[in-house]
Design a protein that fits this description.
Blueprint (H helix, E strand, L loop, with lengths): L1 H22 L8 E3 L2 H9 L6 E4 L23 H7 L3 E4 L5 H9 L4 E3 L5 H14 L3 H22 L8 E6 L1 E2 L2 E4 L4 H8 L2 E3 L8 E3 L2 H7 L3 E4 L7 H6 L8 H5 L2 E2 L5 H4 L5 H12 L4
Parallel strand pairs: 1-2, 1-3, 3-4, 5-8, 5-10, 10-11
Antiparallel strand pairs: 6-7, 7-9
Helix pairs in contact: 5-6, 6-12
Length: 284
């Protein structure tokens, strides 16, 4: 009887130790690399800071990104660095990164490409990234908040009569003069903000436009999607013939919106939309 009791004690002890050891076993965190600033912002917004092991040198937001290992530039990441980090998934964008995506897939990496051309596609992309990273609830909450912010602007825009809509020109760069047209998320932002994009009819989503064309289309508001130390109006007035443009005559030329909130399809794009609306309709 005594032997049976001692045996039971020993069995109970070893079971307790085994269970305790098992409960301390942790599942390794997934490892993510993002070489697109937009997907880096999405991953951070979903609460995946600890899972991000590498980013591109172009990734500059949020501030915590500065502590992450850099794996090279946006268009030419260092493949040796990426291989050494052993990522479970790599997040990229399209266009310029297409060759990089092909190379990564040839190396048998799992790659997700986020290349939205509309706000709705951006929401879809955020939700897809949420599924891939086991952050679906966070992704749904994030897109719901962003949708509320879009709706808040839309409700104001509905009150503006069509004839009162502001003709707007988004200047992405000045040498050569570049803008956004139909098929771009920037073009949609102008529409959502209640504006009329004077470059909407151009043949490509992002393309060059002549100075003469801008003058002839006579925008009422000009947004320079890059920041400069020089006052925006001073920069524009130096251009031949631009003093005839209504936006210049009325002083409605701006370069004070963070360009990343307009050009980067990520969580802050609704902030860019709000700032754009304020420039188009400062009284509203």
């Amino acid at each position: 009887m005594k032997k049976i009791t001692l045996l039971s004690i020993f069995i109970g002890y070893f079971l307790t130790v085994a269970l305790a050891t098992g409960s301390q076993t942790t599942v390794p965190r997934p490892r993510y690399i993002s070489i697109a600033p937009s997907t880096t912002e999405i991953l951070f917004a979903l609460g995946l800071e600890k899972e991000i092991v590498g980013v591109s040198t172009y990734c500059n937001y949020p501030p915590e990104v500065k502590n992450k290992i850099k794996v090279g530039s946006f268009s030419s990441p260092n493949m040796e660095n990426i291989i050494a980090l052993k990522p479970d998934y790599i997040f990229c964008t399209g266009l310029e990164q297409a060759p990089v995506v092909t190379q990564l897939r040839q190396l048998n990496f799992k790659v997700y490409v986020s290349d939205p051309t509309s706000v709705e596609e951006l929401f879809d992309s955020i939700r897809e990234i949420g599924k891939l990273t086991n952050k679906s609830a966070e992704a749904i909450a994030l897109t719901a908040r962003m949708q509320d912010e879009v709706n808040a602007i839309s409700s104001k825009v509905k009150l503006i009569p069509p004839e009162k809509r502001v003709r707007a020109f988004i200047e992405i760069w000045h040498e050569p003069l570049m803008t956004a047209a139909k098929g771009s998320i920037v073009d949609e932002l102008i529409t959502l903000a209640g504006g009329i994009n004077i470059a909407h009819g151009l043949p490509r989503p992002y393309c060059n436009i002549s100075s003469e064309k801008v003058i002839s289309l006579d925008p009422q508001c000009i947004i320079m999607a890059y920041m400069d130390k020089e006052p925006s109006l001073k920069l524009i007035k130096q251009r031949f013939g631009w003093d005839k443009i209504e936006a210049v005559k009325s002083g409605r030329v701006f370069n004070d919106i963070d360009p990343d909130t307009l050009l980067r399809p990520g969580p802050r794009i609704t902030r860019g939309l709000s700032e754009l609306y304020k420039r188009l309709y400062p009284e509203g």
